[in-house]
Specification:
Layout: E1 6-20, E2 23-36, H1 47-53, E3 73-90, E4 93-111, H2 129-134, E5 140-161, E6 164-185, E7 202-224, E8 227-251, E9 254-280, E10 283-294, E11 314-327, E12 330-342, E13 345-347, E14 354-356, E15 359-372, E16 377-390, E17 395-396, E18 403-413, E19 416-425, E20 428-429, E21 435-436, E22 439-449, E23 453-460, E24 468-471, E25 485-487, E26 492-499
Antiparallel strand pairs: 1-2, 2-3, 3-4, 4-5, 5-6, 6-7, 7-8, 8-9, 9-10, 10-11, 11-12, 12-15, 13-14, 15-16, 16-17, 16-18, 18-19, 19-22, 20-21, 22-23, 23-26, 24-25
């Protein structure tokens, strides 16, 4: 994409210490850093921009325009660490305890809007009171930050008998998050200091946290040599707390704010069961059942009184039936599934809270097969047919492909490796409403292993397809609709060199 360069680096270290023949201690740490140029108001372009500038347009180097790369950039940093103690104390009892922590930081500068044309009237206007009054035609934007630290511990204790295995455990996890979103005048580089001027330019100043614990157990029962039955249960208790100032509503030139202080607790006992029956050593059937729930997002607490929000988590009931066959050169499997969702979450009419309303059903069938030749070549094919319906109004859920399929070949013989794959994503309803047609891609790789060194050449989207993948507007291919399009990434070539010591 134009003027959308980026840079990234990562470091990883892992240390495994065998304490004795029954106990192992593992230490792990990783760090990642990324900086890139992209507007937080996108990504994507309007159809008018596509016609004027092509599908690769994103940013430019013009400091008088809202698409200026200096006004649209993001910097992200993460780390992840854990200490794992694993052991066998005899009598069929094993244990594992893993303490962990991870961190995320996002620092973003962005304009408010990217739908304007280059050289035309700037569509990003200054919104905060002080700067809007002085420079109403300046390019407006925001400084967005999000940082959180999560820490927790997972304990697992298993007991094995000849007829089955009992698996038990518990999870505890906490987090601490601070977020802000401050309006800026990007033309002058000025902004109101939210902490000194009564948060006049603050869209969000927020601290939040969660505390959760889970207790779980399942039993893998083997009543017959060719039959396995595994029931399980899990209890989850999740408390989310918020303490912040949120933009509520406003009049011209002045933004009102409201305090959002409160907490909600969500808890649920979940169940699952799976059974596997082997008709032959190479052929089996399985059935699965599970319940689940989706804890409401933090945004549902960003209201005047979060504690009055009685929103319940979305709940699911999941079913799947399938069969797996693997004998000689042939591997086949197929399944059917259904997911029933209740408590779909929607905003109330006064826009002050959220409520539960409606149900949805996701269902489909999937199958895949492969044939492996003796000389290192494997041919494969897979596909799925899917439906995603909002039962309440009989509409199709957005961003849910009606089908997927793929065919390809994999090769590995001696030092040579290679692959050729064709993949297709079926028609789907866009977020804005129109139907997006299916799109496909063809990829290939070839690699040679020299021993201590390995070189790999990969090509993605070899035929340079640029189909629409997402759309946020209401009318496709319209120069008056300001919905944003994203397209398939064009042809890419990547060379990788690995060194082993």
């Amino acid at each position: 994409m134009s003027y959308s360069s980026g840079a990234a680096q990562n470091q990883t270290a892992k240390f495994v210490l065998p304490i004795n023949d029954r106990t192992t201690l593992t230490l792990f740490g990783s760090h990642n850093y990324t900086r890139y140029y992209q507007s937080d108001a996108g990504p994507g372009e309007t159809w008018q921009q596509v016609l004027l500038y092509g599908k690769n347009f994103a940013l430019n180097n013009n400091p008088t325009d809202e698409h200026y790369k200096g006004f649209n950039h993001q910097k992200k940093q993460t780390d992840f660490e854990y200490i794992d103690l694993k052991g066998d104390i005899g009598y069929g009892i094993t244990y594992e305890d893993q303490a962990y922590t991870y961190f995320y930081s996002n620092k973003t500068i962005s304009v408010n809007d990217v739908t304007g044309i280059v050289g035309g009237a700037n569509t990003s206007k200054v919104k905060n009171k002080t700067q809007a009054g002085l420079f109403p035609n300046d390019i407006g934007g925001y400084d967005k930050g999000n940082r959180y630290r999560v820490y927790g511990d997972i304990l697992r204790i298993n007991k094995d008998w000849s007829f089955g295995t009992l698996k038990t455990g518990a999870v505890w996890e906490g987090s601490s998050t601070d977020r802000h979103n401050l309006y800026l005048d990007l033309t002058t580089g000025a902004n109101d200091n939210a902490f000194k001027t009564g948060v006049l330019n603050a869209k969000t100043l927020e601290y939040s946290s969660w505390d959760q614990y889970q207790i779980f157990a399942d039993f893998e029962w083997r009543p017959l040599e060719n039959l396995t039955i595994q029931p399980g249960v899990k209890y989850i208790n999740f408390k989310r707390t918020i303490d912040g100032i949120e933009e509520n509503s406003g009049t011209s030139g002045f933004v009102k704010h409201t305090s959002a202080i409160g907490s909600n607790t969500y808890d649920k006992t979940l169940y699952f069961a799976t059974a596997n029956y082997r008709v032959k050593p190479y052929w089996s059937f399985y059935a699965q059942y599970a319940t689940g729930f989706l804890i409401p997002a933090l945004s549902f607490l960003q209201t005047a009184n979060p504690s009055l929000n009685q929103l319940q988590p979305e709940q699911t009931t999941n079913y799947q039936l399938g069969s797996v066959f693997s004998r000689g050169h042939v591997t086949l499997d197929a399944d059917v599934y259904k997911i029933h969702v209740t408590n779909l979450q929607i905003e109330t009419a006064d826009h002050q809270n959220w409520k539960n309303a409606g149900t949805a059903d996701y269902s489909g069938a999937e199958a895949q097969g492969a044939y492996a030749f003796d000389f290192g070549l494997t041919l494969f094919a897979n596909g799925s047919l899917n439906t995603a319906k909002d039962v309440t109004d009989n509409t199709t859920e957005v961003d849910a492909p009606k089908w997927t399929d793929a065919v390809g070949a994999l090769y590995k013989q001696g030092p040579w490796q290679g692959s050729l794959t064709y993949k297709q994503v079926g028609d789907q309803v866009s977020d804005g409403g129109p139907l997006l047609k299916a799109y496909d891609t063809t990829d290939a790789t070839v690699a040679y292993d020299f021993g201590h060194f390995k070189v790999k050449l990969a090509g993605f989207n070899l035929f340079d397809k640029r189909s629409i993948t997402t759309f946020s507007g209401s009318k496709l291919n319209s120069t008056t609709d300001t919905g944003l399009y994203t397209f398939q990434v064009g042809r890419q070539v990547q060379v990788t060199l690995e060194a082993k010591f």
